[in-house]
Structures are given as C-alpha cells and as structure tokens.
Design goal:
The protein is α/β, with parallel strands linked by helices. The protein has helices at about 5-10, 30-55, 55-60, 70-105, 115, 185-200, 235-240, 250-260; strands spanning about 15-20, 125-130, 140-145, 150-155, 160-165, 165-170, 175-180, 210-215, 225-230. The chain folds into two domains: about 5-20 and about 115-260, no CATH class; about 30-105. The chain has eight helices and nine strands. The strands form two sheets. It has a six-stranded mixed β-sheet. Helix 2 packs antiparallel against helix 4.
Length: about 260
C-alpha cells in the first residue's frame, strides 16, 4: 500500500490508504547471508561425503586391528558415525536454508482486502493496515468512514484453522492443533478496544465502531457484534453502515492523524 495525502485523495476521488512503515520483505543482507550459509553447508556436506567414500581417510582414522580394545572400538564407532551422519546432515540443513531464502524472495503476499476494496470507495474513507494499539494488540485492517471506524478481520485459510463444536483450533508449530480465540469474538473485541482507545481522551462526541469477518466459508454466520461478508462484499457492507452526524470532514481528518500515530 502507499500513503496518499488528503489533497491527492480528494483530487483523484479515491480512498486514502495508510500503510505501516514496517517492511515485510526479506532484507538484501539477510538474503545474501542465508544463501552463502546454505551453499556452504551443502558444499561442506558434499566435501565430507567425498572424504568418507572416495578417500582412505576414514579407514586410516578408524582402528584396523583384529581384536580392538574398548577404547579402539569407541574411536572406530565415533569415526564411522561422523562419516555417515555429518555429510547428509550438512547437505539437508544447507538445502533447507536455501529453500527458506527462495521462498522468502518468491512468495507474493495476497492482495490485501483494503487494496481490493479501495477502488470502490470514495475520498470520504480512510483505510489503514497493520495498526498496533497502545496495549500492544495488532489490528490488521481499519477503515474510517462517515459511520465511524470498522475493524475488518480476515479468516485464516481453512488448512490453518478448524472449528470443533463451539471451540476453534489453529494449526501450531509442528502441525499440532491448539485452541485459538473465536475469530468473530476477537474481531468484536478489537472493535471495542479501538473504541476505548479513542475514548481515552476527552472529546465532545462518541466514535462508533463496527466489526466484520471476511471469509468465503458459508458455515460462518454473523453475530450481533460481528458481521460476516465475502471479499467482494466489503465495499457494499461499508457503504451500508449508518452515517454518524458527529463525523464531520474535520473530525475525520483528526481521527486519521490519531490513527497514523499507531503505525
């Protein structure tokens, strides 16, 4: 996303998109270091395999007597263990490091919900991504409009989340399923946190907040505190929210500046 000034947003008739300055791309230095480390590990594994299989180094180091003593047997087991385990270990770790670098450089992020919906929103809307509230809670998508503020949460892919009865589980490290917060309740609580953050300073008006989950799963239904829409329904849902008389253009600009301080 790009940051558009107020003047340009009104001139082009497009929604303002405020993005966090925190980058998610892999730094060049980290990519070079990861590539060099991966190549070194793979090369080291191949070199150790050549020493173990194509040269008499292992047989020269391992005791070669008819009746070895216990220390000689231990030394021989250590030499052969290193010769058999070290080469593939180095190569596997090196290949894993290289695959991580390639994935970080080639995988593209999905088109953000705000960027996809911005083409259908006018200059009276201000959208922000990656907002972090003072209590440390991150908010992925915020939209400021004539109605107030809407918190837009995206449902994780089906392979990473599942519902068992009334509880939700997410795929954690190692592929294990662990308990997770109900996404609809989390979005509603995030909207309430935004309202409390804004209300922490004394003002002569109240900012209304709304919550919505974006998903294509038809089994997920709305609750009194959180709506449910598909990605292409986001602009229509925002436009359907009742406008608040207290949100004037000056106040909207003031609220937008407050949101910028959270990026």
């Amino acid at each position: 996303m790009v940051i558009l000034s107020d003047a340009r947003a009104r001139e082009d008739g497009a929604v303002q998109l405020i993005a966090s300055p925190r980058t998610v791309r892999l730094p060049v230095g980290a990519a070079i270091a990861g590539t060099l480390a991966g190549v070194a590990l793979v090369s080291g594994g191949l070199f150790l395999a050549w020493l173990a299989l194509a040269t008499p180094l292992v047989t020269a180091l391992a005791p070669n007597v008819l009746r070895p003593t216990l220390p000689q047997m231990a030394l021989g087991g250590l030499v052969w263990g290193v010769a058999l385990v070290a080469p593939p270990s180095f190569a596997i770790v090196g290949a894993w490091r290289l695959s991580r670098v390639v994935r970080a450089l080639t995988v593209r992020r999905a088109t953000p919900i705000l960027a996809a919906a911005s083409a259908q929103l006018g200059p009276e809307y201000v959208a922000a991504s990656d907002v972090r509230l003072p209590d440390g809670r991150p908010i992925r998508n915020l939209v400021l409009g004539p109605f107030g503020i809407a918190v837009i949460a995206e449902m994780p892919p089906a392979r990473f989340v599942r519902r068992t009865g009334s509880s939700w589980e997410g795929r954690g490290p190692g592929g294990r399923w662990v308990h997770m917060e109900n996404p609809l309740e989390r979005a509603a609580r995030d909207a309430e946190r935004v309202k409390r953050w804004f209300g922490s300073a004394e003002r002569d008006y109240v900012l209304k907040t709304f919550a919505v989950i974006v998903t294509t799963d038809p089994s997920i239904v709305r609750t009194p505190a959180c709506a449910v829409v598909t990605p292409d329904q986001v602009p229509g849902w925002l436009a359907s929210l009742p406008p608040a008389r207290s949100i004037t253009s000056d106040r909207r600009d003031e609220i937008a500046e407050h949101i910028r301080t959270l990026l």
